[in-house]
Amino acid sequence: MGTRIQPGPRERLLTAAQRLSYEQGVNVGVDALLSAANVARRSLYEHFGGKDGLIAEVLRRAAAEDLDRYRSAIAAAGDDPRQRLLAVFDMLDEIVTTPGFRGCRYLGADLALAEPAHPAHAVTQQYRQSLHDLLAHEVQRLRLPRPGHVTDQLMLLIEGTLATGAARPTSRPARDARELAQHILS
C-alpha cells in the first residue's frame, strides 16, 4: 500500500491563495488564506515574507500558466501567423464563458492594490510584456505596417475581452474581439 504525500505548507499556501485571490480578490484576508491552506501563520512569513510576497508569487505562478495557455493556443493553430493570432480569441471565448470566470486576475490585482510599490505590480507588468512579446512575434511575421501599433491593438482587445467577460457574463466579447482582430490583421 503506497503512502500519499501531502503537499508542504508552501505549496498549500500557493494553491489556496491562487484560488481565493481569484474568487475573492487579492485583498482576501490572511486568516482565510491560512485556513484554506491549513497552515500556521508562521509558514506564510517563512516562505513568502508575508501576504504581499505570497500574492506576488501567486501572480507569477498564474502568469506562467496563462502564458503557456496562450502559447499552446497559438501553436495548435498551425503555421499561419494570422490564424495563430485569431486562435487567441477562440481560446478567450472558452475562458470567458466558463462558469466561475471572474475576469483578468492581473487587472484585478492592479486595481485592488493601491500601493504603487506593491511587488505584485512588477509581476503584472512583466506578464503583460511577455504576452505583448508573444503577440508581437506573430505580428512581425505578417509584415504589417506599424507592427507595434497592431500588437498594442490586439492587447487592448484581449484585455477588453477579459473585462467585458467578467462585467457582462452573458455576452460573448471574444467573438466580437476576434472579428475586430480580423480587421486589424488585414
Automatic annotation (TrEMBL):
Annotated coiled-coil segments of the chain: none
InterPro entries recorded: Homeodomain-like_sf (IPR009057), HTH_TetR (IPR001647), Tet_transcr_reg_TetR-rel_C_sf (IPR036271)
HTH tetR-type domain ranges (all copies): 7-66
DNA-binding listed as a keyword: yes
Pfam families, per the entry: TetR_N
Gene3D superfamilies cross-referenced by the UniProt entry: Tetracycline Repressor, domain 2
Molecular function GO terms recorded: DNA binding
DNA-binding region: 29-48
Record key words, sorted: DNA-binding, Transcription, Transcription regulation
Highest taxon in the source lineage: Bacteria
Name of the featured protein: TetR family transcriptional regulator
Organism: Phytohabitans suffuscus
